[in-house]
Amino acid sequence: MGPTAAPEKPKPESLTDEEVVQRVRAGETALYEVIMRRYNRRLYRIARAILHNDAEAEDVMQDAYVRSYEHLDQFAARSPFSTWLTRIAVNEALARLRLRNRNQPLDDTGQDGELFMKMTSKSPDPEQSASGAQLREFLEEAVLGLPEQYRTVIMLRDIEELSTAETAQALDLTEVNVKMRLHRGHRMIRSWLFERIGARAKEAFPFMGVRCDRVVRGVLDRLEKSPIPDPRVQ
Questions:
Q1: Of 9, 60, 62, 174, which has the most beta carbons under 10 Å away?
Q2: Domain carrying residue 234
Q3: What is the value of pTM for the model shown?
Q4: pLDDT of 24
């Protein structure tokens, strides 16, 4: 019999987040790109939902990836890595929002259940006559028109499909507050919107390949120009 072939190493894309993090911390830093490719879409959606600005959303993504890389040794796996990373991105985006709107604090009170966002239908009867693309545009407009505290919760729960617990951890809220904001947000954009096109909600907020590549390239350039100490070195 011939020599037994060595088992093939699993492809990077098949590794769990925790396995990727473990190998990056062990010195396989190039694998960090797997994390970026895996979560670019989510971080972009969240940052854009908070900031309403594509360029700032990309900046937040890069800052979040660099910050998480710098602090990989602090990831204790008490929650999923994706939740930990999302929390970093949310904090980065909210910090920018606070700088922009210092005199406009968020408020959960007042106008409960009222639709106080600006929402314009592309058709007099979206359900009957709008195409799939128009419905996606309508959904995007509706969600982005919500006040930030509701918009972010809906983005995490309905679009990214995080659990209530994961959303609470990412936003530093109680689960009760997450449920309350989700309920109010749904009322603001009218229940029929999510009932009728909820299954296609993920098709909204596209993250184009060019943007994905640009963010990955930007992060890698920053890591190369500003070498980060080896996580193995204490």
A1: 60
A2: 13-103+207-234
A3: 0.66
A4: 92
